[in-house]
């Protein structure tokens, strides 16, 4: 019987992690590298401090940047075995439907849905040709539990990503390529900390009170804390490894039990 270390070993694999310089993306990049993978990270800005991964600056909402990223990766690496579509975020204002313009909706869809579809179109043909590869879309529990006053457009864009990911998984299952979705809940990242801080400032309350109010709107977290980015990365590592070779087409929530659904 193969041991767990062999089943989760990624030696000889090349992975790209979008939005891979901070938060969940950085944790995933580090985890995959520790498992033996050659890791490429992309982001709009150069990472701060030491970075042992190959970095490519790219705004994935800009097709021209995506084309340059494609050219560099194919020249230097030939292609990738693992694609982590992690780039995304909440960029629109709170306040419900009346606060959201066409530009807000377009921006959220570009960042949280279309950036992933662009990368998939680039790298899937190579995976299909090898009959091997894994694509992970990083979504959010907000896709199933939207908060109208805080994240309407973001939640809708992530729900669209979930649906796209499921459809893509069905299309590619017989071609040797697995597609999975990971949906984190509240996770201790710089964007989350800024979101809570901004909410506290706009509501004229303390950060601690703001966090409690936000948790109350979602029904709370049974585990009583936010996830660490490394915990999300651990799940992603398992899903891209040979240990998960029969898994495809599923969305995995990692939320400390917060989603109030079966």
TrEMBL record:
InterPro entries: NAD(P)-bd_dom_sf (IPR036291), Sc_DH/Rdtase_CS (IPR020904), SDR (IPR050259), SDR_fam (IPR002347). Gene3D superfamilies: NAD(P)-binding Rossmann-like Domain. One of its GO terms (biological process) is monocarboxylic acid metabolic process. PANTHER family: 3-OXOACYL-(ACYL-CARRIER-PROTEIN) REDUCTASE, NADPH-DEPENDENT REDUCTASE BACG. Belongs to the short-chain dehydrogenases/reductases (SDR) family. This is SDR family oxidoreductase. It comes from Mucilaginibacter conchicola.
């Amino acid at each position: 019987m193969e041991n767990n270390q062999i089943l989760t070993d990624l030696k000889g694999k090349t992975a790209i992690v979008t939005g891979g310089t901070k938060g969940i993306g950085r944790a995933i990049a580090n985890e995959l590298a520790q498992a033996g993978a050659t890791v490429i990270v992309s982001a709009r800005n150069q990472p701060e401090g030491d970075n042992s991964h190959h970095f490519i600056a790219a705004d994935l909402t800009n097709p021209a940047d995506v084309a340059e990223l494609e050219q560099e990766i194919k020249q230097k690496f030939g292609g990738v075995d693992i694609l982590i579509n992690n780039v995304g975020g909440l960029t629109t204002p709170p306040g419900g439907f009346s606060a959201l313009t066409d530009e807000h909706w377009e921006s959220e869809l570009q960042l949280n849905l279309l950036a992933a579809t662009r990368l998939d179109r680039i790298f899937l043909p190579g995976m299909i040709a090898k009959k091997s590869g894994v694509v992970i879309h990083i979504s959010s529990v907000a896709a199933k539990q939207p908060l109208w006053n805080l994240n309407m457009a973001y939640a809708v864009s992530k729900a669209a990503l979930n649906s796209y990911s499921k459809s893509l998984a069905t299309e590619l299952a017989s071609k040797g390529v697995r597609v999975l979705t990971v949906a984190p809940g509240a996770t201790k990242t710089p964007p989350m900390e800024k979101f809570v801080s901004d909410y506290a400032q706009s509501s004229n309350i303390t950060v601690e009170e703001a966090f409690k109010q936000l948790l109350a709107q979602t029904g709370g977290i049974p585990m009583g804390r936010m996830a660490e980015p490394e915990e999300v990365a651990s799940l992603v590592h398992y899903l891209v490894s040979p240990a998960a070779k029969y898994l495809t087409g599923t969305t995995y929530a990692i939320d400390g039990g917060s989603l109030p659904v079966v």
